[in-house]
Amino acid sequence: MPTLPLIKVPAAILRKKQKPLNLAELLSRQIQQLIKDMHKTMIEANGVGLAANQINQDLQLFVINKKLAEENKVPNAFINPEITEYSRETDEMEEGCLSIPAFYAPIRRAKKIKIKALDRQGNKIKFKVRGFLARVLQHETDHTNGLVIKDRV
Fold it and tell me: 50 — phi, psi (to 5°)?
């Protein structure tokens, strides 16, 4: 199966809040296959995360690197994500984005967050994360809300 085409700025889909998925949609063969294809596309593009709107799908869904997920004991797919708490403590790190090729900028983000979402089986998940994983989850959740890193510069 070929890599899914990556959508680049200024595509309108990157600028709007994405649609939540209900349980039946999430568990459909179509969405489960999409999640697999998104993982493959992310790996081929050397990404750490990939949101559905970056492949022209209007869905509150993103995937993250499987090794990063396993190391932190979190799922590698997040559906309808919502960050419920941000730490006051922040740090700045250079970030890039698959939808803005060759653009890198220092982005200030919370060091720790609390996030809730559904995993790919539709189970409710909720946990605290810190460090690089917190940064990745903030970046990808931004995509589901229609924000890109240029909005944070």
Answer: -150, 125
